[in-house]
Design goal:
It is a single chain. This protein is of the alpha+beta class. The protein folds into two domains: 243 residues, Jelly Rolls (Sandwich); 56 residues, no CATH class. 32% of the residues lie in helices and 15% in strands. It is built from eleven helices and eight strands. The strands form two sheets. A five-stranded antiparallel sheet has the order 1-6-3-8-2. Strands 5-4-7 form a three-stranded antiparallel sheet, with helices on one face. Helix 2 packs antiparallel against helix 3 and helix 6 runs antiparallel to helix 7. Bound molecules: 2-oxoglutaric acid (AKG) and fe (ii) ion. Fe (ii) ion binds next to loops. The site of fe (ii) ion has 3 residues, from loops.
């Protein structure tokens, strides 16, 4: 899904846009177009994320869960992070609805402030040369109809003045108050930190906009300047926000609730059972050949999941290869 030059673009500039293969996106699109339309959703929910975490992975809607665990996305995350061992840390499907212009509310999500996402995903600070996380937005609608393309600012090399660490010139960092709304945030910076205000004005001037159609994917970094932009009033945009970390990343937190939490009813178990080893690995079920595995450990997970379709033969073969 990603060429070498696209991988380079992500590493150097912070973002790259591509298209999911049709056969991967089709079942999710069909499900969404029948079950997740304007008249079927709570139109009063205007914030990020699904209400009550309803569409956080695992949703037990196969078309959605299969998309989150599809191999092309995992392979892209592996390539971008430069490691075979990646973990899913976020997967949430959420609606954004266009609202008619009104007085801005400080925490409104409609016309977001420029920000980076690392702040509520890690207890540390990102380092540009060694990215730990790749985030993605999968779009299910057409910008021509809905508007609301994500805005982002490509990094222009190591000397780019807006990409000089530490990245604290944003709400919620270094004791700056947290507001979501652009107008509220920029009037605060203008008054309280004019230098940061000037820098942030450059971000808006340099903003590029993701032009999406159904199954477009924006891969971005948690240290990319970006923001959500207003939709056409009354229109619905549906997206999946996804993120993976390197298995050895320090400080990076899990966004979703623990994936095992809804076990016991056969649904989580069936995801383990029907997935491929690569798909399981993003849930921290070690890959075949991983030093974690022993005969005993394999027999135990087999006892737990064989009734749900887990076949451990590939893990056993790789285990034998070690001796
Ligand atoms: O809605 C979008 O296009 C981006 C949202 C975003 O960046 C966020 O909520 O952190
Ligand atoms: Fe964001």
């Amino acid at each position: 899904m990603l060429s070498n030059s696209q991988i380079q673009t992500w590493k150097e500039q912070g973002a790259v846009i591509c298209q999911l293969p049709g056969h991967v996106a089709e079942p999710a699109l069909e499900w969404l177009n029948s079950n997740f339309t304007l008249d079927q959703i709570d139109s009063s929910h205007l914030d990020f994320g699904t209400p009550d975490k309803e569409f956080e992975f695992p949703t037990f809607i196969n078309a959605l869960d299969d998309l989150v665990l599809c191999e092309p996305l995992i392979v892209a995350a592996q390539k971008l992070l430069g490691t075979a061992d990646v973990r899913l840390i976020q997967a949430d499907l959420w609606p954004k609805i266009g609202v008619a212009e009104g007085l801005p509310e400080a925490q409104a999500n409609t016309d977001q402030r420029m920000h980076m996402d690392y702040g509520n995903n890690t207890v540390l600070h990102p380092q540009w040369d060694t990215p730990d996380v790749v985030a993605a937005i999968v779009y299910y609608d057409d910008i021509e109809e809905t508007g609301g393309g994500t805005g982002y600012v490509s990094r222009r090399g190591v000397d780019d003045p807006v990409y000089q660490a530490p990245f604290v010139n944003m709400p919620g960092q270094a004791a700056n108050p947290f507001f979501n709304d652009r107008a509220t945030v920029e009037s605060w910076f203008k008054k309280n930190n004019p230098r940061a205000y000037e820098l942030r004005q450059q971000l808006y001037e340099r903003e590029e906009v993701v032009q999406f159609k159904p199954a477009t994917v924006l891969f971005y970094r948690h240290d990319l300047w970006h923001r959500g932009r207003p939709l056409v009033a009354g229109k619905l945009r549906r997206v999946h926000n996804l993120a993976w970390k390197r298995a050895d990343a320090r400080g990076v937190c899990h966004w979703n609730e623990g994936f095992a939490r809804k076990s016991y009813y056969g649904k989580v178990e069936s995801i383990i059972g029907r997935s491929t080893p690569l798909q399981r690995s993003v849930l921290d079920f070690p890959l075949p050949g991983d030093s974690y595995w022993s005969i005993e450990r394999l027999r135990n997970v087999e006892a737990r999941f064989a009734a749900h379709g887990l076949d451990v033969s590939e893990y056993l073969e790789k285990l034998d290869a070690k001796f």
